[in-house]
Amino acid sequence: MGLTLGALRRGPADPTFRATPDGALWRASRTPEGPATLRVTPIEQDARGDVGRVRADAWGPGADWFLDQVPALVGDLDDPAPFEPRHRLVAHTARRRSGLRLTRTGLVLESLIPSILEQKVTTDEAYRAWRLLLRTHGEPAPGPAGLPPLRMRVMPDPRAWALIPSWEWHRAGVDNKRASTVIRAVRVARRLEEAVRMDPPAARARLELVPGIGPWTSAETVQRTHGAPDEVTTGDLHLPGIVGHALAGNRDATDADMLDLLSPYAGQRHRAARLILLSGAAPPRRHPKMPRVNIADW
């Protein structure tokens, strides 16, 4: 369950996501029916630890919507059967990570906004921005999740995002380009949320109509909203080198090289890339890490 829902977690201190010692995963979201908190607990596991059945509890105005979404969220609607490993490393990882399913949230903004925040910065910077903005402008999650010790938050609604003053974006380390993209997106939130009823390519095209949202951001969003097995991320700083290194020993692979290497997995390229990332077969780091820059210090 952690493999499946972990794709929704934006860093270890994500205010919308918690894992508790009893094995439960908690998620706080703004659903079409209002804020809601969901707790999903495994109640049946096989010898490998793969989850067979879960118990779901929900709180808040959007609780019923969230409960209806549970099968899609935990990957029960995902079908990995068409996936055929074409490389030994991928086959080994698929056996070792047999419980992996692709989540499908059905919510666009909650995946789109943090993906925008992750554009052109380190993941630590993006996670910090998401955390600070939700703590300042979000609201306590319904039910026990909003209280200590969890203290979870529901992200702001579109109007609240649009009203965040420029200095608050700056304080969170978000430059004007990314902040402006978020504001443009929330102004057409209703139209963007309609993308969940489209097929993944059409959904990506809808998102990319917003200036500042390109192929990287749309892919990162649709992978989560649709559980799209073929929407591989391009334009990423590290992924082509990781895939190239894992499948061909080419750490300098480009997007074109990566797509060529993944072509045997047509229809399942995102699933193949996820398995390659889970394999741990990343090339040795050759350059210093991208410097972390906090514009709030300027």
UniProtKB/TrEMBL annotation:
SUPFAM superfamilies referenced in this protein's UniProt entry, alphabetically: DNA-glycosylase
InterPro entries xref list: Alkylbase_DNA_Glycosylase/TA, DNA_glycosylase
Coiled-coil region: none
Keyword set, alphabetical order: DNA damage, DNA repair
Keyword Cell inner membrane tagged: no
Stated name of the protein: DNA-3-methyladenine glycosylase 2 family protein
Organism: Streptomyces beihaiensis
